[in-house]
Amino acid sequence: MLHGVSALISEYLGKGEAYGKVKKVYSINIVYFSLGQGRDYIYKGRVDFWGMHIHDKLEPSQLQKEVFKIEEVYEIFPEYYVLRVNNFNDVAQDSLDEWIYFLKNSEIKDEFQARGLAQAKDNLKVENLSQAEKAAYQKYLEDRRYAISIIESAEVTGELRGREAGREEGENQAKIEMAKTLKARGFDINLIAEITGLSSGEIEKL
To answer: What ranges make up the beta strands (E) of the chain?
Structure first.
């Protein structure tokens, strides 16, 4: 954990740059083994400084607060999080718990609302596909990338035609040309309809 944070800070601080350019680092460590002793499943560590004789807390000066946009010293230093996944009792009480549930069980419940979980759910669906289904999905993505490049070209064409013969008519013609190109390459009719906005019937007639 310490090496990872140190390497990250060193890597992103360019040669000759001021130390004030150091970025705040959050070290999030997901462990599936018994790291240390303790019954909780989330541990957080941060840096604070305390006087050894009078036990007062070291605080930033007013100038430092203004320059570094902080209120506490720990806001500058790295913060460490240890997520002991196996200690989690599978009861999600907040968004972080929902993520830990996912990390432990490779499952996302329909009622989960944590930020980023929707994308993780889509990725999880792909990971659970058979090899044949994955290949088909990858082909779909490649077709979509190609179609997007066609769209960008068609938008330029549509804009030029729109200037010459009315914008709406020009844009519609550009969609038709794009649909023709995609259909000629063997793209699925439903995908062409989704991308161009034309109906399946219109595309069939092309």
So the answer is: 26-31, 42-45, 79-84
CA–CA dist 130, 137 (Å, integer): 10
Per-residue pLDDT of the chain (206 residues; tens, 9 = 90+): 999 999 888 888 776 777 777 888 999 898 888 788 889 999 999 999 999 999 999 999 999 999 889 999 999 999 999 999 889 999 999 998 998 998 888 888 888 888 888 888 777 777 777 787 777 777 777 777 776 676 666 555 555 555 555 556 666 777 788 788 778 777 778 878 877 788 888 888 88
Q: Which of 201, 157, 149, 200 is nearest to 175 (CA)?
A: 157
Which pair of tokens denotes residue 176? 């038709």
Please, are residues 70 and 22 in contact by the beta-carbon 8 Å criterion?
Answer: no
By C-alpha distance, which of 49, 104, 105 is closest to 72?
A: 49
β-partners of residue 50 are: 57
Is 73 buried (19+), middle (13-18) or exposed (0-12) by CB count in 10 A?
middle
CA distances from 162 to 22, 77, 165, 182, 202 (A): 51, 56, 5, 22, 21
Query: Which SS3 state, helix, strand or coil, does residue 104 take?
Result: helix
State if pTM tops 0.90: no
* Residue pair 76/70 in contact by the 8 Å Cβ criterion: yes
